[in-house]
Amino acid sequence: MSYQTRLNHAFEKAPTLPINQHTRYVFFSDCHRGIGNKNDNFLQNKACYLSALQYYYQCDFTYIEVGDGDELWENYTLMQIMETHDDIFKQLCHFHKKNRLYMLYGNHDMAKKCCENPFHNLTIYEGIIFQSRCPDYSLYVTHGHQADFLNSVLWKLARFLVRYLWTPLEGIGITDPTSASKCRTKKSKLEKKYIHYAKSFQRPLLVGHTHKETLGNEQTPYYNCGCCVHPDYITCIELYGYEIRLIQFHNSSLKREVMASEMLV
């Protein structure tokens, strides 16, 4: 099965959400929430992320988590992660109660596909399609691991290697060469696949997975909301009406900064 087929499969049963002049969506990916130990890369940005959640809740945005929200490769159960970051999940619960929460699963939280769910009556999807009828436009959103053979088809092997090999080795400074977020060559190859898919299938594509934030345009309709595990900041993408924006929140100030913006149509 080709990566294009795997990406297509992500949208076969995807729900469709509207885009119009009134819609407000915010897309976060790759939070990798952990259990508060030295391997919990999310911990350094927790205050910044919580501040961002509060901002988007108050501004009536719908929160879209584009996969790898929780680190279920290094850690065994979602319950321990939820107990560690109880304040985060309480804020997410506020979105859920207002029907303003959608979650996708990625390779690191694939368990959400079948057996791990942080909220009652919340469906965890592989993809979501955002659609405008007038003008005619669609944005396809999924985590992006489908373009990565090891982390999609062989994800159980990749999880084993991360859990028992690369996580201990990273403690002594040896980087995982199979990681899309840490290997520049792999990151570049994946970006080329995403762009090729978006152009070939005429499907503007928004993903995460590589941790590299990107705001495309009409000629290169590929968008990436980045991650929440950068050393000094977190990134996300806003969809405000027909405008798409790349956003940073910095640890030092907790302030929202618009890095770039484009009109979708």
Task: List the SSEs and their pairings.
Layout: H1 3-10, E1 16-18, E2 24-28, H2 46-58, E3 62-66, H3 78-84, H4 86-97, E4 101-104, E5 124-125, E6 127-132, E7 137-142, H5 149-152, H6 155-170, H7 184-200, E8 205-207, E9 222-224, E10 233-240, E11 243-250, E12 256-263
Parallel strand pairs: 1-6, 2-3, 3-4, 4-5, 7-8, 8-9
Antiparallel strand pairs: 2-10, 6-7, 10-11, 11-12
Helix pairs in contact: 2-4
Q: CATH top level?
A: Alpha Beta
Overall mean pLDDT: 94
Number of helices: 7
Whole-number radius of gyration?
A: 17 Å
Structural class: alpha/beta
What is the fold-level CATH name, i.e. the topology? Purple Acid Phosphatase, chain A, domain 2
- Strand proportion, as a percent range, falls in 15-25%
Biggest sheet: strands side by side, in what order?
Answer: 5-4-3-2-10-11-12
- Give the topology string: H per helix, E per strand: HEEHEHHEEEEHHHEEEEE
Q: Your description of this structure?
A:
The chain is an alpha/beta fold. The protein has a single domain, classed as Purple Acid Phosphatase, chain A, domain 2, CATH 3.60.21. 29% of the residues lie in helices and 23% in strands. It has helices at 3-10, 46-58, 78-84, 86-97, 149-152, 155-170, 184-200; strands at 16-18, 24-28, 62-66, 101-104, 124-125, 127-132, 137-142, 205-207, 222-224, 233-240, 243-250, 256-263. The strands form 2 sheets. A 7-stranded mixed sheet has the order 5-4-3-2-10-11-12. Strands 1-6-7-8-9 form a 5-stranded mixed sheet, with helices on one face. The model has no long low-confidence stretch (mean pLDDT 94).
